[in-house]
Sequence to fold (69 residues):
Amino acid sequence: MSVAKQTKVAFCPDCDEEIDFSQASPKVGLKFACPNCDANLEVISVNPLKLDWDDEVFDDDWDSGEEDW
Fold:
């Protein structure tokens, strides 16, 4: 009986670097830095394996558009 092998490779949305999770069991919500560009990332899906930027980091640094005069 053949069992479909789950892909454990995803791509950084910032630098498009291939990130291999073959030695880990990624779970939705896992946060980490891209080993290539240090972008703050989060696992948003495990089947298929997908990554996105960590929104919490961007919320803290978000520019409201107000000028510092």
